[in-house]
Amino acid sequence: MSEHIPAPDRQHDPHPAQPRTVLLRGGEVHSPADPFATAMVVEGDRIAWVGEEGAADSFADGVDEVVQLDGALVTPAFTDAHVHTTATGLALTGLDLAAAGTLADALARVRAYADARPADRVLLGHGWDASAWPEGRAPSRPELDAATGGRPLYLTRVDVHSAVVTTALLDLVPGMRDRSGFHPDAPLTGDAHHAVRRAAYATLTPAQRAEAQAAALARAASLGIGSLHECAGPEISGEDDFTALLALAREANGPRVVGYWAEAVASAKDAERIRELGAIGAAGDLFVDGSLGSHTAHLHAPYADLPGHTGTAHLDTDAVAAHVAACTEAGLQAGFHAIGDAAIGSVVDGVRAAAERLGTARIRAARHRVEHAEMLTEATVAGFADLALTASVQPAFDAAWGGPDGMYAARLGAERAATLNPYAALLKAGVPLALGSDSPVTPLDPWGTVRAAVFHRTRAHGISARAAFTAHTRGGWRAIGRDDAGVLVPGAPADYAVWRTGELVVQAPDERVERWSTDPRSGTPGLPDLTPGRDLPVCLRTVVGGRTVFGRPNE
Predict the structure, then answer these.
(1) Using CA atoms, how far apart are residues 204 and 36, in angstroms rounded to an integer?
(2) In whole angstroms, what is the distance from residue 468 CA to residue 475 CA?
(3) Which of 91, 225, 454, 475 has the most CB atoms around its CB within 10 Å?
(4) What percent of the chain has pLDDT over 70?
């Protein structure tokens, strides 16, 4: 049977009698096995063959399906290494203030949303960023009370490390005004923020939660994302939310979901509980500090726009060391959320202390990871390399907040801001990178993420398109201990995406070794031209484990 890019099967037998064999031909296949490949054979859930068009004829009569690519590009499916799936779905289906250009605009959107959702017990919203508004401040509680008609509202800042709420939501949490992080006239942070988040999310019905999760997974599949790393935890989402998501991902025809649960481990019993939840690690957003936007990232020197304030430390070196040691001994991956230079220093010192106790080889073999890792120094980059820590990073943060006039510069001053997110230095030191979005903090957008890593706002920190693409495909698999996936070679999982795109290019070398890319004549596979202003590739089909999970209509 021969056909063009098909729509996905809506139903599938999880245990087919025989593996289906598919031949894709007539396109460009991004594979190190053959840099000139134009065809690929998939047998069941594995890549069986990659090669050139002439050799594809020998397979054509022995396969169940032939897909004519018509010049389309086939790549490994992307892995987004840091996602909050339910929150992403709620932003997709609910109140998203990312496009609000002013405080007045934000309040008008809140009012319209409240009017349109009269049955919701608690109104949920996300994405405001007062640093980008001319008013320069967050919505006040009286303003939100008026906009909602006095109903409960939970509204997170774009970084999800602070929130504004209505009086009605505060009244649902006993002792709220005595919690750390409570501010009568400012956004809530710390324990106060976590308490209102728990109260707000507790009002979601199972149906609302499932709808949000399904919406997020469908969006990911439509963007060529084949795997998501869900970064959950008791301060982020409940156990029911986490286990329901993992169950949905197992049962649905969609992207894979790898779960992390951010809870400190002190014993083998703790580690076993993490595994029983379905998590592969006690990692993800285990908070060592907060965020720069909310002034809660832990710094050595005070914020430039908040003199005397150095942020919030949630875990110290000893706590980091204890967690890493316990996880390593239990054979469990550990990890942390760390953004400020003081927080990252605590992580490196803590992991090194665990290595002194258990041996560096055991620590390196565990592939522990650090989320965000923004404010690195030469010493902490070297520490990441020495301890084989994976840097799970989000280049869209730099695209959104970097540069001399961005939020980073406002918080830290231009000189310190220019040191953030040094991807070239990390790669040069041999630190493994895994790229992600932290959605809904920044949107699911894999090609945009690769572009942001290449065209970093601080030019010295940018990396080659090839390196960024690898970090967003194979890097996420390596971060979970899988070296056999995220690449189109025989034997690898059949997780791939098909793209409509322009001419493929190989990035030319420049004066910095870190960005050199091999001359096309040597056979390096090409990638789309990601120069800012050019259209990004459009996903035509996404396949996970040999099964189509997204097909663009009318293609």
Answers:
(1) 50
(2) 9
(3) 225
(4) 94
